């Protein structure tokens, strides 16, 4: 009863709410059907501001006098292009909406204009004006983007030219007092620029240290310090706990722990930097000089953090069992202090050099700073190599050769030694920029190789874990795709190998297109310039489409395997087709299905078939020189599966090979001989050569024929009847056609008789002839008839 009352109350409230909504809707004013809602369009002043912004970037680029001063403008041009893309993306839906509305109204009639209502004419005119203005704005944005893209290309050329000129520029040697004089006694212009920078710092600091802001500034600075120190430790411990308790035990846990350690260091440093930047700019933005300096300082901080974070993750001195590379523990302990010393030294020295770059000091000051950086890096790396060499010698003396050779030494050790030697010679010869460049590239090489080594190990262990049949993911893939453990291992190896090859390629490219101070955006942009050639752009492959392509590939393979099993086990066995035809149909279906899956996968990637002419041309050249036989065999396999001159189960004879067809593959056919061995015959031979198909007619009979020689003194009729009786009494021989005996040959050596009978299948001829010989010899012995002896060889 209580439930009934609840239901009645609910129905009443529903009806009451519906009535109230209907009455309320009647009171609302009707929407205006004739007025076109104005759409927001970028004003002309905004376009002028964008143009002025681009012109300012061009002015900064033209005023740059060294390689490093172009890094900041390049980042700002990239940000400018992103802003243009966002504005264009916001206007494109409005353009499409206006086009649809104009399409609904239709074109203006050529005659009898008065027949059309005035409000429709006014609405069409308004929409047309809006669309024209929007189209003009989009064209202007596209032109600005193209100019910015051309500017990036020009920046790359200018940086290349400046780098070449700086590396080949000869100055004073570090042993010459003239090298140190700009630092000891700078000229008046450099002093003025330094004082201007200090004044800018004081002004910016005073704005955040006002009496009412000191507490918040101190709190933000303290918070940044806490995040950078205790926050990093807390984040690292949290990620470590997560890896230990959530990641399965094995190599994946070890690589995940190393990655978590590096990630905690980088992430907390980034957060601390953002807090400091907010503390300094929360009231007023930085001046242009300080803005340029802050951007370069941020890059240097990230480079130093990468040095320390990757070193801690790979050395893992606190937990040697977590260490990814095969580094002996004494070597790791010897290497431990050097990354921190190197990063702190670079942070201080490079920051000072960035001050000279941001303020535009003289080239003598910049060159001197570069020389000091090169000497310090050279000294630190040289000390590191000597210390590691000493530890390795101690390990060799302790008969621990394996531990001594378990470092990254070898090629890396040699490259570092050669780099130090060349850098030292360059400093002594006066090529300071070349020495600084080598030192920077040495540090950059460590960052790139260490980072990609960590990523490669993580990807490798992740692939092995995901495709392992012992884990839930591997079991799910086995059940989804219907594959075995061996196939899972093959998939893991293929995916892991492809991923590692791709990462190695990116590492090699990163070594040459980046350097100290290169941001992640710049690095990705430089990599895409190299990898994103015209041919790849024509393919129209978008990263967002990769997931769709993977899903299409997995689902397509699963569908083909499921349908193939259904055909083999359910549908085809219930038809009246012979097993050979069923096998041919199943193979043909699988081949066509896999081809369609490949086409669907490429379509999901966004590949436009009209732009594949260059791939087809390359393939045609490859086919003409090296793939002729493969293509010929492939086409022949399709002909065999469709015309079916031979099929699975047929007994054939070709080129002296006789046996049963076991399988017709895409390239070759498997023929099983009588001894159960397999002969692989290319499909083209089955099409182009003379082939004997014994079982093609379906009613082929085997011939059991024996040729025997008897002495001249036998009774031929008696022997004939004996042979016919042996044939007639054999159960495998057919009654029709009846067996017969033929007088084959008469010679001085004897009489040759040939007895012939037929069996139901050519496959039992051998066994039948063996049984007949046993029986005939038995009967001849019982009748006292001997076979003729062969003549003796002269």
TrEMBL record:
<dbReference type="InterPro" id="IPR006685">
    <property type="entry name" value="MscS_channel_2nd"/>
</dbReference>
<dbReference type="InterPro" id="IPR052702">
    <property type="entry name" value="MscS-like_channel"/>
</dbReference>
<dbReference type="InterPro" id="IPR023408">
    <property type="entry name" value="MscS_beta-dom_sf"/>
</dbReference>
<keyword id="KW-0472">Membrane</keyword>
<comment type="similarity">
    <text>Belongs to the MscS (TC 1.A.23) family.</text>
</comment>
<feature type="transmembrane region" description="Helical">
    <location>
        <begin position="501"/>
        <end position="521"/>
    </location>
</feature>
<keyword id="KW-0732">Signal</keyword>
<feature type="domain" description="Mechanosensitive ion channel MscS">
    <location>
        <begin position="630"/>
        <end position="695"/>
    </location>
</feature>
<feature type="signal peptide">
    <location>
        <begin position="1"/>
        <end position="24"/>
    </location>
</feature>
<feature type="transmembrane region" description="Helical">
    <location>
        <begin position="367"/>
        <end position="386"/>
    </location>
</feature>
<feature type="transmembrane region" description="Helical">
    <location>
        <begin position="581"/>
        <end position="600"/>
    </location>
</feature>
<feature type="transmembrane region" description="Helical">
    <location>
        <begin position="407"/>
        <end position="432"/>
    </location>
</feature>
<dbReference type="InterPro" id="IPR022249">
    <property type="entry name" value="DUF3772"/>
</dbReference>
<feature type="transmembrane region" description="Helical">
    <location>
        <begin position="541"/>
        <end position="560"/>
    </location>
</feature>
<dbReference type="InterPro" id="IPR049278">
    <property type="entry name" value="MS_channel_C"/>
</dbReference>
<feature type="domain" description="DUF3772">
    <location>
        <begin position="139"/>
        <end position="200"/>
    </location>
</feature>
<keyword id="KW-0812">Transmembrane</keyword>
<dbReference type="Pfam" id="PF21088">
    <property type="entry name" value="MS_channel_1st"/>
</dbReference>
<feature type="domain" description="Mechanosensitive ion channel transmembrane helices 2/3">
    <location>
        <begin position="587"/>
        <end position="628"/>
    </location>
</feature>
<keyword id="KW-1003">Cell membrane</keyword>
<dbReference type="InterPro" id="IPR011014">
    <property type="entry name" value="MscS_channel_TM-2"/>
</dbReference>
<dbReference type="InterPro" id="IPR049142">
    <property type="entry name" value="MS_channel_1st"/>
</dbReference>
<feature type="transmembrane region" description="Helical">
    <location>
        <begin position="612"/>
        <end position="631"/>
    </location>
</feature>
<dbReference type="InterPro" id="IPR011066">
    <property type="entry name" value="MscS_channel_C_sf"/>
</dbReference>
<keyword id="KW-1133">Transmembrane helix</keyword>
<dbReference type="InterPro" id="IPR010920">
    <property type="entry name" value="LSM_dom_sf"/>
</dbReference>
<protein>
    <submittedName>
        <fullName>Mechanosensitive ion channel family protein</fullName>
    </submittedName>
</protein>
<feature type="transmembrane region" description="Helical">
    <location>
        <begin position="338"/>
        <end position="355"/>
    </location>
</feature>
<dbReference type="Pfam" id="PF00924">
    <property type="entry name" value="MS_channel_2nd"/>
</dbReference>
<dbReference type="Pfam" id="PF21082">
    <property type="entry name" value="MS_channel_3rd"/>
</dbReference>
<feature type="transmembrane region" description="Helical">
    <location>
        <begin position="438"/>
        <end position="456"/>
    </location>
</feature>
<feature type="transmembrane region" description="Helical">
    <location>
        <begin position="215"/>
        <end position="235"/>
    </location>
</feature>
<dbReference type="Pfam" id="PF12607">
    <property type="entry name" value="DUF3772"/>
</dbReference>
<feature type="domain" description="Mechanosensitive ion channel MscS C-terminal">
    <location>
        <begin position="709"/>
        <end position="786"/>
    </location>
</feature>
<feature type="transmembrane region" description="Helical">
    <location>
        <begin position="256"/>
        <end position="279"/>
    </location>
</feature>
């Amino acid at each position: 009863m209580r439930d009934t009352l609840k239901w009645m109350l609910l129905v009443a409230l529903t009806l009451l709410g519906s009535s109230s909504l209907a009455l309320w809707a009647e009171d609302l004013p009707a929407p205006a059907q004739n007025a076109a809602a104005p759409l927001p369009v970028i004003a002309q002043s905004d376009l002028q501001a964008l143009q002025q912004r681009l012109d300012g970037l061009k002015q900064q680029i033209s005023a740059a006098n060294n390689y490093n001063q172009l890094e900041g403008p390049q980042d700002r041009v990239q940000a400018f292009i992103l802003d243009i893309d966002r504005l264009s993306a916001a206007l494109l839906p409005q353009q499409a909406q206006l086009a649809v509305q104009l399409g609904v109204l239709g074109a203006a009639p050529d005659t009898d204009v008065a027949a059309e209502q005035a409000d429709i004419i006014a609405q069409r005119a308004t929409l047309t004006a809006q669309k024209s203005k929007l189209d003009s704005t989009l064209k202007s944005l596209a032109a600005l983007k193209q100019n910015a893209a051309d500017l990036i290309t020009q920046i790359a050329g200018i940086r290349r030219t400046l780098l070449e000129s700086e590396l080949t520029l000869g100055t004073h040697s570090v042993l010459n007092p003239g090298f140190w004089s700009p630092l000891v006694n700078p000229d008046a212009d450099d002093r003025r620029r330094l004082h201007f920078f200090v004044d800018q710092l004081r002004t910016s600091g005073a704005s955040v240290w006002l009496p009412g802001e000191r507490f918040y500034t101190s709190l933000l600075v303290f918070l940044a310090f806490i995040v950078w120190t205790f926050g990093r430790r807390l984040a690292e411990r949290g990620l470590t706990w997560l890896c230990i308790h959530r990641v399965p035990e094995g190599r994946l846990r070890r690589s995940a722990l190393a990655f978590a350690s590096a990630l905690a260091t980088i992430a907390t440093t980034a957060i601390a930097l953002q807090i400091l930047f907010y503390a300094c700019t929360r009231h007023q933005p930085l001046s242009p000089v300080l803005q340029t300096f802050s951007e370069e300082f941020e890059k240097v901080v990230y480079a130093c953090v990468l040095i320390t974070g990757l070193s801690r993750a790979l050395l893992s001195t606190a937990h040697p069992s977590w260490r990814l590379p095969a580094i002996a523990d004494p070597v790791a302990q010897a290497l431990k202090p050097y990354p921190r010393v190197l990063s702190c030294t670079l942070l201080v020295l490079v920051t000072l050099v960035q001050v000279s770059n941001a303020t535009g000091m003289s080239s003598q000051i910049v060159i001197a700073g570069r020389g000091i950086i090169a000497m310090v890096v050279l000294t630190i790396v040289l000390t590191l190599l000597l210390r590691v060499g000493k530890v390795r010698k101690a390990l060799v003396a302790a008969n621990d050769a394996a531990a001594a050779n378990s470092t990254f030494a070898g090629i890396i050790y040699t490259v570092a030694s050669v780099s130090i030697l060349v850098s030292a010679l360059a400093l002594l010869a006066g090529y300071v920029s070349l020495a600084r460049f080598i030192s920077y590239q040495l540090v950059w090489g460590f960052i790139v190789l260490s980072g990609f080594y960590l990523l490669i190990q993580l990807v490798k262990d992740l692939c092995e874990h995901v495709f392992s049949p012992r884990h839930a993911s591997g079991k799910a893939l086995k059940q989804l795709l219907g594959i075995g453990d061996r196939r899972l291992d093959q998939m893991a190896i293929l995916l892991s190998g492809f991923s590692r090859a791709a990462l190695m390629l990116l590492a090699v490219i990163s070594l040459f297109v980046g350097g100290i101070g290169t941001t992640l955006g710049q690095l990705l942009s430089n990599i895409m310039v190299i990898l994103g050639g015209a041919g790849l752009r024509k393919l129209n492959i978008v990263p967002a489409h990769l997931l769709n392509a993977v899903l299409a590939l997995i689902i397509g393979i699963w569908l083909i395997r499921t349908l193939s099993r259904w055909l083999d086990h359910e549908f085809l066995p219930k038809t009246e087709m012979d097993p050979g035809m069923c096998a041919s149909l199943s193979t043909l279906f699988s081949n066509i299905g896999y081809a369609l899956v490949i086409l669907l996968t490429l379509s999901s990637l966004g590949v436009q078939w009209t732009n594949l002419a260059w791939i087809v041309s390359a393939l045609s050249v490859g086919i003409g020189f090296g793939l002729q036989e493969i293509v010929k065999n492939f086409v022949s396999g399709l002909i065999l599966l469709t015309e079916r001159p031979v099929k699975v189960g047929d007994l054939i004879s070709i080129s002296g090979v006789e046996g049963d067809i076991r399988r017709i593959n895409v390239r070759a056919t498997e023929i099983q001989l009588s001894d159960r061995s397999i002969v692989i015959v290319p499909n083209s031979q089955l099409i182009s050569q003379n082939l004997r198909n014994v079982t093609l007619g379906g009613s082929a009979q085997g011939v059991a024929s024996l040729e025997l020689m008897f002495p001249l003194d036998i009774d031929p009729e008696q022997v004939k009847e004996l042979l016919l009786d042996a044939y007639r009494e054999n159960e495998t021989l057919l009654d029709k056609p009846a067996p017969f005996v033929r007088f084959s040959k008469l010679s001085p050596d004897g009489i040759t008789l040939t007895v012939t009978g037929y069996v139901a299948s050519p496959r039992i001829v051998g066994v039948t002839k063996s049984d007949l010989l046993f029986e005939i010899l038995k009967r001849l012995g019982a009748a006292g008839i001997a076979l003729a002896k062969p003549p003796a060889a002269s």
